[in-house]
Structure formats: structure tokens, C-alpha cells
């Protein structure tokens, strides 16, 4: 079900769900594999998401739904779109398929520009349902769904639907705008993609920039060779003490030694979040076993 912030209600900001977002990206890599993730290299094009007043209501909605289905690589799934008064933006009935029934808020009859955004979340639900991928907690499962939609190429629309100014406050999904920006920046780094030109909402672009800044920090954390001098000094101090730094789980490195063997350091891969373990012996290259990214390290 696509969350639809009530018009005029405050929009949450920041990164309150970041641990779950990181865990969601790791879960996608584990379920789909590195090659499976890379099959989603092409994002949904803005032209394919366009739905304006000149389109027939039902034919246009079906066309947009089909475009989202193709973007999320579910060619044998058919979305049957209907409109009704409802509190949420949209909801999907999960079944065996191949037909899935999506109900969308009646306001999309006239406010059509964001229909594809609402559908991207619902089609991502179908994808995860078919993959058998989910978290036990309902709230975390919705965060996984938003993350999947954004990381796999359709959910940039959910961020573009965010608007906040003197007259309008609107957001879709369960992630904050900045968290959507974080996920999209992670995707952009993997595929060499720049989604910034697609945003029609200035506030969406600003949220993307803030999320991108947090995502880029992952590439500069010790023991990665690109870490800055402050991070390197802190790492050297922790290494001498064999300490576990008191920082967020997504950033923490840990020093380990089994049966008195040579020390090793483990840290989260900046691409997929899987923990990488390498010897503590200076400059080296490490290959993440999950996403196969080669990492330059200074351990």
C-alpha cells in the first residue's frame, strides 16, 4: 500500500530509517545476486511515466502501469487499475498472478502526474511477493518496498512526487525524501546514472542532493583507501586498541582475531552493505563476495 501523506501535514525529514534501508539493499543483492541487480540498469524513463489530461483515463493508467511493470522486469504480470475514494494513494491485492488488481486514489483521475509514483510502490510489492522477499515487521517491509522500487529503477518517481512549499505539502511512500535520495544515489553510483535531470520538483532535487551526500560518505569510510585524514587517524587509534567504534551499524568496522591468528578487520561494503573481512596488513584490494565490487583498502 502506498502511503499518502495527508495534504498539509508535516513532512518527515532526515534519515530515521537508514539501518533498515541499508539492510534492504543487502537483502536485494542476496536475493537477486549481483548479476540480477545489474539487470535493472535501465530506469523507468520520464516519458513512459507521463500521464496527462489528453490520455484516456483507463487506457492511460494501464499504459503507465505496464511501463512500471516492464521497468521492474515483471513482463508476465498484468496490472488491472481501478479508481476509488480511499485514504492511501494506492493498494494492490497480492495473489498468485498473472493479474494483479491495483486500486488507486480517486484524486488521480485529475491529478495524473503522480500516478506512476503510486504504481511504482505497488508493483514493487508484487515483485517482492514473487521473489518471496520480505521482512517480518510490517513497517520495515514497507521500507523494503520503497527501497526496492527506488534501487531497481522505478522509485525515483516517489521522490519526484514530494513537494513542500507555502501552499503544498505532499509525499508518497514510507521513506523520507532524503532517504529516497540516499537510495537513488547508491543506484546512481552503481550504474553511472544521474537522475537529477528527471526531477520536476525542486524540493525532490534538494532532497536527492542531501541523500547523495550521505551515500558518498560510505565511499570515504575507513578502512577504505579513500577515507579522509580524520577517519584514518581514528581508525589507526581503534586498530591499536582493537576497539569497535561507537558509530552506526552501517559504518562500523570491527577488528577480529580467531584462535590467536593474525588480526582481521570487517566492514560493510559501501555498495551492498555485506560485511567484508580482510587482513590488517596495509594497502590491499578486497573483493566483496556479494556484489563483487573491488575495494581499495588501507587496513
How many β-strands, per DSSP? 10
Q: Outline the biggest β-sheet.
A: 3 strands, mixed
Strands in their spatial order, largest beta sheet = 1-3-2
How much helical structure, as a percent, in the residues? Answer: 40-55%
What is the overall number of helices? 9
User: Ends: how far apart?
Assistant: 44 Å
Poorly predicted ranges: none
**Rough shape?**
elongated
Please tell me the overall pLDDT. Answer: 90
Our Rg estimate from Cα atoms comes to 21 Å
Strand proportion, as a percent range, falls in 15-25%
Name the structural class.
alpha+beta
Order of helices and strands: HHHEEEHHHEEHHHEEEEE
Describe this structure in words.
By secondary structure, the protein is of the alpha+beta class. The protein contains nine helices and ten strands. The protein has helices at residues 18-38, 46-49, 57-71, 115-131, 138-151, 156-160, 177-191, 202-217, 229-241, and strands at residues 78-84, 90-93, 99-105, 163-164, 169-170, 254-256, 264-268, 275-279, 283-287, 294-298. A three-stranded mixed sheet has the order 1-3-2. The mean pLDDT is 90.
Layout of helices and strands:
Elements: H1 18-38, H2 46-49, H3 57-71, E1 78-84, E2 90-93, E3 99-105, H4 115-131, H5 138-151, H6 156-160, E4 163-164, E5 169-170, H7 177-191, H8 202-217, H9 229-241, E6 254-256, E7 264-268, E8 275-279, E9 283-287, E10 294-298
Parallel strand pairs: 1-3
Antiparallel strand pairs: 2-3, 4-5, 6-7, 7-8, 9-10
Summarize the structure.
With 299 residues, the protein is α+β, with helices and mostly antiparallel strands. The chain has nine helices and ten strands.
Amino acid at each position: 500500500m502506498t502511503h499518502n501523506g495527508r495534504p498539509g501535514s508535516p513532512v518527515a525529514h532526515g534519515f530515521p530509517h537508514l539501518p533498515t534501508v541499508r539492510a534492504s539493499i543487502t537483502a536485494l543483492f542476496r536475493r537477486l545476486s549481483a548479476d540480477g541487480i545489474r539487470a535493472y540498469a535501465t530506469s523507468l524513463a520520464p516519458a513512459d511515466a507521463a500521464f496527462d489530461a489528453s490520455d484516456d483515463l483507463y487506457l492511460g493508467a494501464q499504459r503507465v502501469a505496464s511501463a512500471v511493470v516492464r521497468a521492474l522486469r515483471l513482463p508476465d504480470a498484468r496490472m488491472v487499475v481501478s479508481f476509488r475514494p480511499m485514504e492511501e494513494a494506492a493498494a494492490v491485492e497480492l495473489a498468485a498472478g498473472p493479474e494483479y488488481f491495483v486500486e488507486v486514489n480517486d484524486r488521480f483521475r485529475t491529478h495524473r502526474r503522480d500516478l506512476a509514483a503510486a504504481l511504482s510502490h505497488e508493483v514493487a510489492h508484487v515483485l517482492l511477493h514473487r521473489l518471496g522477499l520480505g521482512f517480518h515487521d510490517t513497517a520495515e517491509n514497507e521500507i523494503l518496498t520503497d527501497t526496492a522500487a527506488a534501487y531497481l529503477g522505478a522509485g525515483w518517481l516517489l521522490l519526484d512526487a514530494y513537494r513542500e512549499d507555502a501552499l503544498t505539502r505532499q509525499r508518497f511512500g514510507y521513506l523520507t525524501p532524503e532517504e529516497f535520495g540516499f537510495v537513488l544515489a547508491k543506484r546512481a553510483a552503481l550504474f553511472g546514472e544521474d537522475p537529477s535531470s528527471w526531477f520536476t520538483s525542486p524540493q525532490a532535487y534538494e532532497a536527492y542532493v542531501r541523500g547523495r551526500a550521505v551515500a558518498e560518505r560510505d565511499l570515504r569510510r575507513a578502512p577504505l583507501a579513500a577515507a579522509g585524514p580524520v577517519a584514518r587517524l581514528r581508525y589507526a587509534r581503534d586498530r591499536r586498541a582493537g576497539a569497535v567504534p561507537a558509530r552506526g551499524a552501517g559504518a562500523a568496522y570491527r577488528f577480529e582475531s580467531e584462535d590467536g591468528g593474525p588480526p582481521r578487520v570487517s566492514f560493510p561494503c559501501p555498495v551492498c552493505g555485506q560485511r567484508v573481512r580482510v587482513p590488517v596488513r596495509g594497502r590491499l584490494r578486497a573483493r566483496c563476495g556479494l556484489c563483487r565490487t573491488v575495494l581499495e583498502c588501507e587496513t
